[in-house]
Design a protein that fits this description.
The complex is a heterodimer of chains A (407) and B (141). Chain A is mainly beta. Chain A is built from four helices and 38 strands. By secondary structure, chain B is an alpha+beta fold. Chain B has helices at residues 2-14, 60-69, 73-76, 119-129, 136-140; strands at residues 45-49, 54-57, 77-83, 91-93, 98-101, 113-116, 132-134. In chain B, the strands form two sheets. Chain B has a four-stranded antiparallel beta sheet with strand order 2-1-3-4. A three-stranded antiparallel beta sheet of chain B has the order 6-5-7. The longest helix of chain B is centred in the N-terminal third of the chain and has 13 residues, at 2-14. Classes of the chains: A mainly beta (407), B alpha+beta (141). The A-B interface holds A 100-101, 150-151, 153, 161, 177, 183, 199-201, 206-207, 222-223, 226, 228, 246-247, 252, 254, 274, 276 and B 25-30, 34-37, 39-42, 106, 109-110, 128.
């Protein structure tokens, strides 16, 4: 027992703290790492360090004081983490190598668990923070900025591949291919990140089950956000804004099932949400404002419940490509609703049909957009509202709200 | 005046459907199967139909998925083009391409198949990625 206590008390005492700075004896981070043991701390003073590829292969804390710069000189992967329980905190990491075969990154985590990447600034990196086969890693409060153009190859900001229990929190990502990319990542959370001006997607999910993304901002990305081939996704309180273009969607959902979409805002997108092959999804308390289409639901979707959402100032509320409707709309507020409420139960007495005739025509023939807001189109739309023939009969909100919800 | 007529006439003649693959604009063109924006120059493919309509894909996985889901698509196909994994990523006919399948290729949709116009390129890549050589006709069946 005494011996056990002795071990318990003494272990931390042996941990050493090293100071690395350009002017002292310890002026190479790599050499200091090689000297260190598991549990040690290495503090790096401000300055510029050109260490080529820095390999962290011990369980250590690597902490920068006033953001020392690690320069990859456009040739190297800057930090390679090859141990568990590593913390990398407070560095400025610039100019990683560029390559299509080995995907160089600012920081890459190779098959490790419990790694923390905190408070770093990454600039002009090919991939930003890349994790493969990581478990229980934290990527928090990092600033990533790259300068991608459409023609050139570029990697993703925060890229996770085959990971589990990841926490991506409070990062700011700009100018990458996809801001945050998840492929085969499970049980993870993406919280309070801001992903803007990336050339493809702000967030890109594929084959990543049971993840949540909460209170993130996705603005002005090439094609919005894509969540594909996944089940059990929780999407709460995110903002999808300013995603314009023929192939751009605020949120693209493809082959998604058993998921929740609650409290999100879709503002000024060509299409707020585009859904294809989606089933068993609850959509509640979302706001759709100033979109071209608030929502496009392809006919191969089923069991989507659209309840208590606000639809304000959208050119078209709902678009679809077929007459089969297996989804339900209830208790939504539609600003285009022209019905009345005689029994004062705050619900409209006549149903609302969110799909207009003209949006059905546009689905088949996009150039017909030229005729939008013409006299004939308005008459056709009105006639269709009274005697539905082309629009799907079952796509209807039987209890539309008279007043917008306070969202 | 005659030049205007020529312009009008020629515009009718030359808008006939193309049978050549159309260059893919990275970051702009959209995959006709998975709806993703195509951004990786190494893996795209195109289907050209008998009528000259062109469908673009970001991965061979999407070509196969598209053909599988659209049962009459297969009969209407004139040509399928893949892109060369190496060099300037030129289009090559699928039937003439040398294909390698390897998990380590990490293509956009997990098809993980790369196409090559010549056998030497294929062999060097196959050594690097520990892949296996596959045959287009077997894949497409």
């Amino acid at each position: 027992m005494l011996r056990f206590l002795f071990i318990l008390c003494t272990t931390p005492i042996f941990a050493t703290t090293y100071h690395v700075s350009n002017s002292s004896n310890y002026n190479s981070i790599q050499q200091t790492i090689n000297l260190s043991k598991d549990g040690d701390t290495i503090l790096v003073e401000a300055g510029i360090y050109k260490e080529k590829n820095l390999v962290v292969n011990k369980e250590i804390i690597l902490k920068g004081i006033q953001h020392p710069t690690l320069d990859g000189e456009g040739k190297y992967e800057i930090i390679s983490v090859r141990a568990n329980h590593v913390t990398i905190d407070g560095f400025k990491i610039i100019n990683s190598g560029i390559g299509t075969l080995d995907d160089p990154a600012g920081i890459k985590i190779y098959n490790n668990r419990n790694v923390s990447i905190i408070n770093n600034i990454l600039e002009s990196t090919f991939f930003g923070i890349y994790t493969q086969n990581g478990i229980n890693c934290i990527i928090k409060n990092n600033q990533l900025k790259s300068f991608a153009t459409e023609e050139q190859q570029i990697g993703n900001g925060i890229h996770c591949w085959k990971c589990d229990s990841m926490q991506i929190i409070g990062n700011n990502i700009q100018g990458h291919r996809d801001g945050i990319y998840f492929e085969f990542v499970t049980n993870s959370v993406i919280w309070r990140n801001i992903s803007t001006n990336n050339i493809r997607y702000g967030l890109h999910f594929m084959f990543s089950n049971n993840d949540s993304y909460i209170t993130n901002v996705f603005r002005n990305n090439g094609a919005g956000v894509a969540v594909m081939f996944t089940h059990g996704v929780k999407m709460f309180n995110n903002l999808f804004e300013e995603n314009w273009g023929d192939a751009a969607y605020g949120l693209l959902l493809k082959e998604i099932s058993d998921s929740y979409l609650v409290g999100n805002q879709f503002i000024r997108n060509t299409s707020g949400i585009f859904m294809e092959g989606v089933s068993r999804v609850q959509m509640e308390r979302n706001l759709f404002q100033n979109n071209g289409w608030a929502m496009k639901i392809q006919a191969n979707c089923m069991d989507i419940a659209v309840t208590k959402n606000n639809f304000l100032s959208n050119t078209f509320d709902v678009g679809t490509n077929g007459s089969l409707v297996l989804n339900t709309f209830n208790f939504n507020y539609w600003d285009k609703y022209e019905g009345y409420d005689l029994n004062k139960d705050k619900l409209g007495d006549i149903p609302y049909r969110p799909v207009s005739l003209f949006s059905m025509i546009l689905e088949k023939m996009p150039p017909a957009m030229m005729l939008f807001r013409s006299f004939m189109v308005t008459i056709l739309d009105k006639t269709e509202k009274i005697i539905p023939s082309i629009t799907p009969e079952n796509l209807v909100d039987n209890s539309p709200l008279m007043k917008a919800l306070p969202l | 005046m005659s030049s205007i007529i020529l312009l009008i006439v020629s515009s009718f003649i030359f808008t006939s459907c193309s049978t050549q693959p159309k260059p893919i604009k990275l970051g702009i063109s959209q995959c006709d199967y998975c709806k993703m924006t195509i951004s990786d120059a190494r893996f795209p493919a195109e289907i050209i139909t008998q009528k000259g309509k062109i469908f673009m894909f970001d991965d061979i996985h999407c070509v196969l998925g598209y053909v599988k889901e659209n049962s009459n698509a297969k009969n209407e196909i004139k040509d399928i083009y893949l892109t060369d994994y190496n060099g300037n990523h030129a289009f090559i006919k699928a039937s003439e391409a040398h294909l390698v399948k390897s998990e380590e290729l990490r293509s956009p949709m997990g098809g993980n198949i790369a196409a090559f116009s010549n056998v030497d390129d294929m062999n060097t890549t196959m050594e690097k990625f520990k892949g296996e050589s596959i045959n287009w006709n077997e894949l497409f069946q």
